[in-house]
Write the structure tokens for this entry.
Amino acid sequence: MQCPVCQYTNSRVLESRSAESGKSIRRRRECLQCQHRFTTYERIEFVPITVLKRDGKRESFDRSKLLRGMVRACEKTGLSASDLELIIDEIEVELQQRSQREIPTQEIGELVLQRLKSLSEVAYVRFASVYRQFQGIRDFAEALNHFQTDEQPRSEVQETALPEDRPPSIETPPSLCSAS
Ligand SMILES: [Zn+2]
């Protein structure tokens, strides 16, 4: 990185910080020749992410679609739309940095779950009911075991299904989807 004062091309990094919700890195540098201090921004090169759907079809990663699914799963859980957008920001950055260009839908679901887990148990279980149904009852029961509550079971599986998702399989009893 060329010094704006003396054009010397070597500098040392004094400080690195993430900026723009993790979309860029801000670096404070010092020129090794004249000691002038300047700031650079390193941005992630945008490469389209392709999502590989369960039916084998491909489509480009659509953050608003993912957000809609998450908003539905997170209704009345105290998580705001901006909390959810922040999660999507992080996931998008993570996917951008992979060499793998086609990401299976269920892998994106798992990335969402990893983050929801620490934020809201109800949102986690609701989202898991949508994204893990294809793996059968065992995974679903395991997800619930982490967060089993004494609340009355309620069927919310249908409401949280994303438009492109298959209806919940019959081996997933609605009574397992205990939600607020
Ligand atoms: Zn310089």
Summary: The chain has two domains: 11-43, 50-151. The first helix runs from residue 63 to 73. The pocket of zinc ion is lined by residues 3, 5-6, 8, 31, 33-34, 36 (CB under 6 Å).
